[in-house]
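thought: fold this chain, then report.
action: predict
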Amino acid sequence: MRPQYPRNQAPETALPRPGTQGAGPSAHLSPSPQPRETPAPVTASPSTSTSSSCWSAQPTCKSDPGFWITVVTWNVGTAMPPDDVTSLLHLGSGGDDSDGADMIAIGLQEVNSMINKRLKDALFTDQWSELFMDALAPFNFVLVSTVRMQGVILLLFAKYYHLPFLRDVQTDCTRTGLGGYWGNKGGVSVRLAAFGHMLCFLNCHLPAHMDKAEQRKDNFQTILSLQQFPGPGAHGILDHDLVFWFGDLNFRIESYDLHFVKFAIDSDQLHQLWEKDQLNMAKNTWPILKGFQEGPLNFAPTFKFDVGTNKYDTSAKKRKPAWTDRILWKVKAPGVGPSPSGRESHRLQVTQHSYDSHMEYTVSDHKPVAAQFVLQFAYRDDVPLVRLEVADEWVRPEQAVVRYRIETVFARSSWDWIGLYRVGFRHCKDYVAYVWAKHEDVDGNIYQVTFSEESLPKGHGDFILGYYSHTHSILIGVTEPFQISLPTSEPASSSTDSSSASSEDEDDSTLELLAPKSRSPSPGKSKRHRSRSPGLARFPGLVLRPSSRERRGASRSPSPPSRRLLRGAPDRSNDGGSRGSSEEGPSGLPGPWAFPPSVPRSLGLLPALRLETVDPGGGGSWGPNREAPAPSSQGRQGLEEGGLGP
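observation:
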């Protein structure tokens, strides 16, 4: 059963325990969805709905609880993020939809992408992504995937207990600015399978101005034709069971002059403007838009406003208001080829629950638009590939034992690991500790791992365990929240311990850069830093030298007891051991900062700027029994693709 939190209350203040599937009274297994009421469908106006050829299935599974999706689009106009976005995301609003979404897709356009900002965002997560992660984490939302193309960003979040049922997550982007060479215009997408149904989210920023309608159509066709996904599922965007198309589509209102448009808005006669909206007119004439649906435009045009106000453009240009920011969807009809998920009849039904703008946000000349949908699945693939079992509470280190059962269809990897997360974690790499999934057979297909005492968090708190699949790049098994209550360690008494702690604190504040598609979960302290965000740049082999203070401390020690490896790959030789907080380097290294050789790569932003590999050890080897990890076979991803890989 899925956790049910009280309305208007974040999970930190209430942690009810949902039921389990096949678990005993002292164990937690992966949670499952719980039914809830679904809203009545929203009736679209004749001017905004598509032709009668559109298909909508009736649900064949009457007990299906419905899967709620919130879609947000916002052209932020290079502005800084606001302080609060809870009303935009329908969080804690007190209504029936409060904290009701299961998945949230956020599409941003015109995020500041000046060269200095892009370089900073390559090293750290951008401020907008940080804002949404911070706002959604208290409500149990976890970042599933993100992709960026200059100023166009797409973020996809889901409740943590849905992660085991999300598969085949992929991203893509298409530039259409300057003939396809510039990413200020174009589209970014995230596709995935949710409970066995193929979904695709496409965030677009199309050309502006009244006379560019045909160019907008051409750009949309280019995006649809160029974005192809490998694998056995849907290949093209329109091959998916359900497509959400949203963004700053830049369609304008034709024929009417500025004064009439403002009069219609002020007198609440928006229906007079619908028939002259370019997108509404294009639905009846452009074959590429066949099957796309949109709710009624019962909100005022969202462009263009004076920044900081709710007044339409008063500048010398006096641009005419328009519904530039839109959210549409399309369900794949049965007669248009087989379903990518393998089921033909009555795949799913989509009902739009709300569609509105948010006038309270004034940081941009656009108003954000949000829509809520309810998906009724005819069937659900809701069997997790891995089921985790853990005790209700850990009060002693020896209780930190995790048992898990693996389905026979799951392709295991030696690089899989189990992470320990605080309730309210933001993404899959936001763990406190982890242990390699060594697959030690306990009883048949049941396996067991143990967290080391030094890796466990001290004090009292609520935590979640998750099995991270290197193949799927997502948590494919999670537990319910459980408690850890361990005594805090006593403060160090000797000056040596104090000096060591100070040195470790310096290391924690050091920028952490990981190689592309690194198989290491990047062990480290439990402190949360911006450098541990999922949007890290991939600079293989880059080493940040220690501070002069640390070098002096090392030189004063005549015989240092050990040498420490700065954020190196974890030692996987000790079966079942946790690497959650250990930073000791493997034995046999020639120097304290020995790293595998790698080819220096360009940032991709400044052609003349390169980050070279530093080898303080003088080119020594990695020891007789150790080899450097092989680079990913998938190659280097661009900085504009913010993958979740460490």
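thought: worth noting. The longest strand covers residues 182-194.
final: tokens above.
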